[in-house]
């Protein structure tokens, strides 16, 4: 798959803990496609980080928080 | 305008800062209270902290949320291989050196508006006790009054514009005269010393400028 154009790639990808977890979770590319490499300005983590706020580890891009499955 | 003696005001402010630390174990911060209120309005209530999860548990939780959000079809059968690996430094455990200093206790959101209300009431109380209390929308500054007028809309507008500048400045500096000037400076924090020198340098310069106009 071709790499997303730089302007659609989240500039926080390299430091985002959740991005690592998406990779670890293996089969959940849909988060990356929907947020990290496209509409990253809608990502709850990106918004918090851009505002200089601490980003909870378990905050998902859609604003929900992870709970133990 | 009648002010408290400079030394009495200084002692009172130091007393408030020290009492704040002794009572709630937090550095005194006024602009930080505004920030907390704005953040609450903007981002909502912070989540209740979850129990720490291992990476595997997080991965399982992500898969569960993925299925709940996008449907089971969003979960592929093979590990994703479409994304190129990112060049990134290894994750660092938060060292003691990098942990926030000073404010170690959680506090209720209600403390923020209460603190601001207390500041306003304290100011009013000091004026009442001093026998000079009077409701006004202006600032009893002779220099500013001469430029924009005493107690009218122009004075109110000037204060509003000044307040906006103060808001920008304190956010850019990460604190105001209470946080940097009282607490940071007294702890010899380099950033706070620089910030305080900038605050007061700009204040003195502005005072001379207004006096010269």
Q: Strand share of the residues of chain A?
A: under 5%
Unreliably modeled segments of chain B: 78-104
Q: How many distinct beta strands of chain A? A: 0
Helical residues, percent of chain B: 55-70%
Helix content of chain A: 25-40%
Give the overall shape of chain A, derived from the CA principal axes. globular
Q: What is the straight-line distance between the termini of chain B?
A: 20 Å
- What value does the Rg of chain A take, in angstroms? 12 Å
Sheet having the most strands of chain A: none
What is the average of the pLDDT values of chain B? 77
Order of helices and strands of chain B: HHHHHHHH
Element string of chain A (H = helix, E = strand): HHH
Q: Work out the number of β strands of chain B.
A: 0
Verbal overview:
The complex is a heterodimer of chains A (69) and B (213). Chain A contains three helices and no strands. Chain A is mainly alpha-helical and 69 residues long. The longest helix of chain A is centred in the N-terminal third of the chain and has 9 residues, at 17-25. By secondary structure, chain B is an all-alpha fold. Chain B is built from eight helices and no strands. Classes of the chains: A mainly alpha (69), B mainly alpha (213). The interface between A and B is medium-sized, with 35 and 35 residues.
Brief description of this entry?
Chain A has 69 residues and is mostly helical. Chain A is 35% helix and 0% strand. Chain B has 213 residues and is mainly alpha-helical.
Write the layout of secondary structure elements.
The complex is a heterodimer of chains A (69) and B (213).
Chain A: H1 17-25, H2 29-36, H3 44-50
Chain B: H1 6-24, H2 31-43, H3 55-70, H4 111-130, H5 142-148, H6 153-173, H7 177-186, H8 190-212
Helix pairs in contact in B: 2-4, 7-8
Key terms for this structure?
heterodimer; A: 69 residues; mainly alpha; 3 helices; B: 213 residues; 8 helices
């Amino acid at each position: 798959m071709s790499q997303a154009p730089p302007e659609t790639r989240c500039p926080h990808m390299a430091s985002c803990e959740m991005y690592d977890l998406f990779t670890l979770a293996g089969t959940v590319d849909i988060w990356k496609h929907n947020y990290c490499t496209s509409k990253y300005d809608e990502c709850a983590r990106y918004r918090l980080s851009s505002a200089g706020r601490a980003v909870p580890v378990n905050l998902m891009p859609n604003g929900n928080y992870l709970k133990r499955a | 305008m009648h002010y408290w003696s400079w030394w009495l005001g200084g002692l009172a402010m130091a007393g408030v800062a020290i009492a704040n630390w002794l009572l709630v174990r937090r550095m005194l911060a006024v602009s930080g209270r505004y920030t907390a209120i704005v953040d609450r309005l903007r981002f909502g209530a912070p989540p209740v902290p979850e129990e720490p999860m291992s990476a595997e548990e997080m991965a399982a939780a992500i898969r569960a949320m993925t299925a709940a959000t996008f449907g089971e079809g969003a979960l592929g059968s093979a590990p994703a291989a479409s994304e190129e690996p990112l060049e990134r430094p290894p994750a660092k455990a938060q060292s003691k050196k990098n942990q926030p200093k000073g404010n170690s206790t959680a506090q209720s959101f209600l403390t923020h508006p209460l603190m601001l209300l207390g500041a306003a009431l304290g100011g009013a109380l000091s004026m009442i006790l001093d026998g000079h209390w009077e409701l006004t929308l202006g600032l009893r500054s002779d220099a500013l009054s001469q430029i924009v007028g005493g107690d009218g809309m122009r004075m109110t507008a000037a204060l509003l514009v000044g307040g906006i500048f103060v808001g920008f400045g304190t956010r850019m500096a990460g604190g105001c005269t209470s946080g940097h000037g009282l607490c940071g400076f007294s702890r010899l924090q380099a950033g706070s010393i620089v910030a305080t020198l900038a605050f007061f340098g700009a204040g003195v310069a502005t005072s001379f400028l207004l006096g010269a106009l």
